[in-house]
Amino acid sequence: MRTASYAQAMSLSMFRRRVYAVVARIPKGTVLTYGAVAARAGFPRAARAVGTAMAENRYRDVPCHRVVRADGTIGGYTLGGSRLKAARLRREGVRLTGDRVIFPE
DNA sequence: TAGCTGACGCAAA
DNA sequence: ATTTGCGCCAGCT
Questions:
Q1: Nearest nucleotide by C1' from A47 CA?
Q2: Which residues touch A22 (CB under 8 Å, ≥6 apart)?
Q3: Nucleotides of C under 7 A from a protein CB
Q4: Would you say residue A1 has pLDDT above 70?
């Protein structure tokens, strides 16, 4: 099932609360890398764990498709595959070349 | 407590 | 451009 908001979730670890809070604020049309999310959440070396947290995200207000790899490649997308993830990003205005994100400056 | 598993990151080959 | 290897870490068994 899919809860409306991560903020209402009652049994999330502190790590995931912070991570989801960061992802929830990523503006439409922009992206952050897994590592950047980890750093902003206060766990600078937990990029990998952020990936796991995204893979298990169940909240509508956590736009996990806006989190991509540091080298610009899309990264995974449990619901629909990286192909759909790229499509959603393009639809939001994110610049891509093939399946690679073009980071602004 | 000890292992194992990934929507990762990065350097090296 | 790819692939491999290794370090990292939270979460689960």
A1: B8
A2: A32, A37, A40, A41
A3: 7-11
A4: no
